[in-house]
């Protein structure tokens, strides 16, 4: 770190020039990157996905979700309007790649509601690339035109129709607008922290880091697919991470200058101490994300590759450009210097002494809060958003409600497709699937030109999460041994695909992240117990966030009031893994910031209590300010139109605040105080293996602190 800082100071113009070029090139890349990102949701090797590929080859459709035209007769007898329904269905079938099956073509009265007033059809179209379905407008306009003069009330429901009619519209602020909103919130916090024009420096560092990351992502798209989610992560998480890292280094630089160091010496010391914590934090976040490549899902792998660049680029910019700028103009922009850094925060020092004095109470309160937050996690469901949460008003919602009142369940939205090798094998498959409890009806499409037949199995209830997919297993068990069976496709099988592909590997991902982080932090803290505690607390903290997300989003306690979104019923499969990867790394930032300073103070004084008081007194304001900055970034991200992005943003935002308050400001100092001298132990053999200085067990020095409430430096007893 010292050599890095010295190089940046001595060659500051070259360093600034290099990053200026990256800034300009990144600005150009940022407008190109969104068009190069992928919407790949494939699951290679999984039954549901591979069967959907066969369906696409045979019929041009994937069969995962259906659009459902609903026809209602004003005279109360829909069966008398079969010809009108046939004409509308025929117009829909003429759409590119569309397949339609319903009452008009089959005469099957199971396509009618119990009261005989309404009928429905199942419309399958090619799977869109991305969230927006380019055929949605064609379907709506075709249905409206064909329905004119029919005398029927014609409506359309389905997942796409419910999504577009919900209060959560497809329109939302651009990534640029979200970033500017987050930057404004960060500026307010920085002005409070620095009380000088120095507040602008972290924002400049963040701008360089974000645009440089976009440039690298552009290069990455030449090598591999990168998910569309990465653009949001680079802009918003990159903003928060770069500012947080800058905040730590700049604060330490001001502290060293306040203690009389020359400007360049202060820069080197800040990078050697705070910069070391930044490096450890950045690598930890990167490790958490790159571990996603172990999951055999292209979407998550691309997020791992793309997301890894965010902390690495931010770290690189902070450790090179920031010291160059501080060396060049730091003292001049640190004006009017209303806030001084010569002493620790009186408020945080007093808080730390209180935590040390009542450490058992503090630890108990922290554990109780986390336990309450974790409790709902045992009801967490994985899958897709339920139809009930997509819309609570509008024509699509009303059409689905009318079907429900007429005895037709929501399973019409998520039929199961059984692919059969030849028409001769279809009757046996139809009969077997039709006998499964929970199946409303089984109807085959006309044979495809290539031979395979799509047998549509319509369950009573939608199959969108890991509880409701039991019907898929029942259907598979009933038909898998019959001649001609080639597999199941649809929403239910896709849910099971994700269960197999993501969560069978997730324990390995978790273990790898925890192990590498533990080893890295052993080198950083020169301790066995501190990194073990850090990893354990991070896992508990992430579990608490999942519990709160379950309570708020899945069960809907507050989501409607704040975001206009009713309970989702489940969390999208890719969200828990991505939330874990980001939150584990970002939360570890604050652990490193706090414990690195405590380790430094312990090495200087030999007192655990003094290390806790001085460490928290020096970093408490920084950690809470950094958490607020990230929170503003995530709040801006939560304004994105997609519900899944809202869940991601709010989970990360709440997780950061929970971690910075309950965990780092209460539980960590309490536990460090309780563990005493054992916090700092690193045996000689392990230190030699890690290539760091050993830290043998030794009694704590007399428990005194140099920090008093009035800011004067004089000995004060601390328990």
UniProtKB/TrEMBL annotation:
<feature type="transmembrane region" description="Helical">
    <location>
        <begin position="360"/>
        <end position="380"/>
    </location>
</feature>
<feature type="transmembrane region" description="Helical">
    <location>
        <begin position="506"/>
        <end position="522"/>
    </location>
</feature>
<dbReference type="Pfam" id="PF03176">
    <property type="entry name" value="MMPL"/>
</dbReference>
<feature type="transmembrane region" description="Helical">
    <location>
        <begin position="573"/>
        <end position="596"/>
    </location>
</feature>
<feature type="transmembrane region" description="Helical">
    <location>
        <begin position="12"/>
        <end position="33"/>
    </location>
</feature>
<feature type="transmembrane region" description="Helical">
    <location>
        <begin position="534"/>
        <end position="553"/>
    </location>
</feature>
<feature type="transmembrane region" description="Helical">
    <location>
        <begin position="226"/>
        <end position="250"/>
    </location>
</feature>
<feature type="transmembrane region" description="Helical">
    <location>
        <begin position="622"/>
        <end position="641"/>
    </location>
</feature>
<keyword id="KW-1133">Transmembrane helix</keyword>
<feature type="transmembrane region" description="Helical">
    <location>
        <begin position="309"/>
        <end position="330"/>
    </location>
</feature>
<feature type="transmembrane region" description="Helical">
    <location>
        <begin position="175"/>
        <end position="194"/>
    </location>
</feature>
<feature type="transmembrane region" description="Helical">
    <location>
        <begin position="661"/>
        <end position="681"/>
    </location>
</feature>
<dbReference type="InterPro" id="IPR050545">
    <property type="entry name" value="Mycobact_MmpL"/>
</dbReference>
<protein>
    <submittedName>
        <fullName>MMPL family transporter</fullName>
    </submittedName>
</protein>
<dbReference type="InterPro" id="IPR004869">
    <property type="entry name" value="MMPL_dom"/>
</dbReference>
<keyword id="KW-1003">Cell membrane</keyword>
<feature type="transmembrane region" description="Helical">
    <location>
        <begin position="277"/>
        <end position="297"/>
    </location>
</feature>
<keyword id="KW-0472">Membrane</keyword>
<dbReference type="InterPro" id="IPR000731">
    <property type="entry name" value="SSD"/>
</dbReference>
<feature type="region of interest" description="Disordered">
    <location>
        <begin position="698"/>
        <end position="719"/>
    </location>
</feature>
<feature type="domain" description="SSD">
    <location>
        <begin position="194"/>
        <end position="328"/>
    </location>
</feature>
<feature type="transmembrane region" description="Helical">
    <location>
        <begin position="201"/>
        <end position="220"/>
    </location>
</feature>
<keyword id="KW-0812">Transmembrane</keyword>
